[in-house]
Amino acid sequence: MKIRAALAALLATGLVALAQAAEPVVIKFSHVVADDTPKGKGAARFKELAEQYTQGAVKVEVYANSTLYKDKEEMEALQLGAVQMIAPSLAKFGPLGVKTFEVFDLPYIFDTAADLHKVTAGPLGKKMLASLEPKGIKGLAFWDNGFKSFSANRPLRAPADFKGLKLRIQSSKVLEAQMRALGALPQVMAFSEVYQALQTGVVDGTENPHSNLYTQKMHEVQKHVTLSDHGYLGYGVITNRKFWEGLDPTLRGQLEKALADATEFANGIAQEENQKAIDAVRASGKTEVYALTADERKALKKALLPVHEEMASRIGKETIEAVYQETGFDPSKF
Ligand code: LMR
After folding, report:
1. What pTM was estimated for this model as a whole?
2. Pocket test for ligand 1, best of 41, 65, 68, 71 (most atoms within 8 A of CB)
3. Which helix (H) or strand (E) holds 329?
4. pLDDT digit string (tens) for 68-101?
5. What proportions of the chain, in percent to the nearest 5, are helix, strand and coil?
6. 3, 83, 232, 240: which has the fewest C-beta neighbours closer than 10 Å?
7. Is residue 11 part of a domain?
8. Does residue 334 belong to any structural domain of this protein?
């Protein structure tokens, strides 16, 4: 009898253990943009591949549009382990105290996406991701969005047009300096609040890649968009370090593969998604989309380049120079 009871107990424990083993590992992936954006689509692809490669041992829950957390809270939630993955814009690493990332916010530091990729795919990018570790963060990949345009309810063609405008920015000292260099008044605000702030006139304008502008319907409350390409907005895909290192190594390898494939996908569609978005903005007829002439572009660039020098002591001169070297950018040419 005793043996039978012991066997039953053993069986019960075994069944519980089995049931536990079968419970999928849940990855909550939180982000602030719409599903229909390069980041939103990248997250959806990662979910699909992660679940497929791990044969269901991992379940990815994607929360778009700030449904779980807004900008700053998202980073804290990741560090606390309340979510396992996020992909904040590179601007959002500065406020975390990792100032080298602010180099990505410098106006006109990248002429093309290919220049940016020289940095993100090279040793500098790797070093930057690794520098997040003391913050309890494991940097996994860089995802593209695109170059930013300015928008407002008045045409923005020359630096003088920006004077006195309240322009929303992400929380970034570099973006603050950028707006001030144009005589504008930078207003830090969470992404999820921008549409309403534009609609009610709390701010006059903003900057963002077209996919963000269009999917948040900002063009419905902004009469003018200038194709300024004055700065780059992309993402760092990151995870909670303790969570990641605690994963079974086989599972982690499968997730790394899923992320590598999702990264290739996301970076492959970003440019096209932004093109489609600006085409849709044009087609809406609600906003005038203006392409700067070569001279206007030069004037804007001239007004903004001093921000590099101004921010050098903050970001680190060696980081800025390392980027110049990687891309061949020569500020003395302007
Ligand atoms: C913003 O706050 O403007 C962007 O970082 C939003 C995003 O994640 O693309």
Report:
1. 0.93
2. 71
3. none
4. 999 989 999 999 999 999 999 999 999 999 999 9
5. 55, 20, 25
6. 3
7. yes
8. no
